[in-house]
Amino acid sequence: MTDEPTQALLPGRMGLLVRLQAQPGQRAALLDVVNRYTDGLAEEPGTEVFIVHLDPDDDDIVWLYEIFRDENAQADHRAAEGFATLMTEMPDLLASPPGVLRMDPLRVSMQQEVLNEDWAL
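Now predict its structure.
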């Protein structure tokens, strides 16, 4: 195994950066809902990356970073049963509507440790 990062160009992909602001003190409940959704992403093969981030400066903020194979995959994501459940469970936990920023990923570089079986959940 090489220590060089895995590199890939991502032509045609689309990405979203999503800011979720939980009601005060509700970030743990919001994370529970988001994590249950994440556990079911196998039903969305076109959702290639889904990363949940904690905001280190605000205990009520959760960030999501998503990469979809293409715009059709993003549409499939929105039509998935798991997404419908997420959209049913999440609104009462939010202090404001999600902030969504569209991005078009260009390139990824990932250290081999991330791909190592011992590191994965």
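The domain at 6-115 is CATH 3.30.70.100 (Alpha-Beta Plaits).
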